[in-house]
Amino acid sequence: MSDGPAGEQLAGEQPAGDDPAAAAQRTRLKVFGVLLTYMIAGYFVIGRLNLHRDHYWDVALPFEEQIPFVPQLIVAYALVYFVVLVGAMRIPLMQLAYFRRAARWLALNFHIAFVIFLLFPVAALHRPPIDPEASVWLALTGFYYDFDAPTNLLPSLHVQMALMGGLLCWRHGGLTAAVGLLSALTVSVSVVLLKQHYVADIAAAALIVWGTARYCGMDFRPGEWPDPAAVPAQADGRAATR
Q1: How many CB atoms lie within 10 A of CB 132?
Q2: Residue 12 covered by a domain
Q3: Residue 155: which residues within 8 A CB-CB, separation 6 or more?
Q4: Which in 134, 140, 152, 230 has the greatest CB count within 10 A?
Q5: How far apart are CA 148 and CA 108, in angstroms?
Q6: Structural domain contains residue 241
Q7: Which residue intervals of the chain are DSSP H helices?
């Protein structure tokens, strides 16, 4: 993923007349738009392709049929969008080097998930029948069931995004860290109790998030953000984030 002219300018010197904050905002919006488009398009295209598979791998553990169905957790399930937005958008505007590194980390998670979806298709076989008129919780859950194909399970991209958002929230410290971590854990539990995923899907998601964070050099320790003007550039053109 290219850092773009604005990113290069912010990592080094600003040309005369260019507003650094405006340049940073443009770069962030472009990167966010590309990531969002890639994630949505890739997920739904692969999901529809996987509907026509002749074989699905069974990763369900013996006890998973006994796990209760709790449609009220559809609200917790939707927290993933909140936690990712808070974690990413609270990165200070001028910390573009850290933002770009986080963007690469998210993109790598999407890449890995999509490859596994194609090579190792798993289907949701424990989804219960839904009567949307029985309750608002069932109606909301049924809505998710309708547009989200029962494939693309391993790893849980939903949990990957929740954990990534939670870790980014942890970097901010304080209340943001607590809310982000709690939201990520709640989302991880909800995907199983809504019969959207198996336990193995959550474990795979957590392993991928951990491994890619180490590979990308992500640092989630709370603390003061460095002065962008004082951060030296690395050999790959990025600025050091700590």
Answers
A1: 15
A2: yes
A3: 112, 113, 116, 201, 204, 205, 207, 208
A4: 152
A5: 22
A6: no
A7: 4-11, 20-50, 74-77, 79-89, 96-119, 136-147, 157-172, 174-193, 199-216
pTM assigned to the model:
0.84
For the CA atoms of the chain, what is the radius of gyration?
Answer: 20
| 114 residue type, one letter | F
Query: C-alpha distances in angstroms, 31 versus 60, 86, 213?
Result: 36, 16, 19
**34-63 confidence digits (pLDDT tens):** 999 999 999 999 999 999 999 999 999 999
Specify whether the CB–CB gap between 75 and 138 falls below 8 A. no
Q: Which residue's entry shows tokens 């995004």?
A: 161
Interacting residues of 169 by C-beta distance below 8 A, sequence separation 6+: 83, 86, 87, 90, 176, 177, 179, 180, 181, 183, 184
Q: Which residues contact 213 (CB under 8 A, 6 or more apart)?
A: 105, 167, 220
For the stretch 95-138, pLDDT in tens is 888 999 999 999 999 999 999 999 999 998 888 899 988 999 99
**Apex 87 CA angle, 83 and 91, nearest 5:** 160
Tokens (6 digits) for 177? 């860290």
Number of domains in the chain: 1
Domain membership of residue 151 (yes or no) is yes
